[in-house]
Amino acid sequence: MFLTLEEVIKWIGISLFEIWLHLVCVLIFTVLVVLRLERVTTMSWWTVFIPLFVADGLDAYFCLIVFVRTWKNGDGRAAWLRLISSVQMLVCLFVSEFLFCKKLTNVSSVSYSEAFAATFIALQLLMVRACQTH
Q: What is the mean pLDDT of the chain?
């Protein structure tokens, strides 16, 4: 009924470290959002979104390290495929987070559908990746 960790890693295409990194940063982000919405603190929305931006940056750095190591091991095709798929997902997530943060701060007149369009693209890429694994 439930997927095992190996199946999730294969289906999503990210490592256990990346899953852990994003879960910790989403947990911190959730705590900051609750503090901001309950008016416990007067942080700006940009400060609240810092954990998500940090997670994206650390994930990009990790993907670059994995690319270099895979390339040095002689598997250039796998290295490029992993790098391209990881960069596509990271760009989609970053753009979505950035636009949603702009929407919350009322800096621009971005609609919610425009802010989350990159998330829908990321979900479509994830569906394609899931179909390729089976």
A: 90
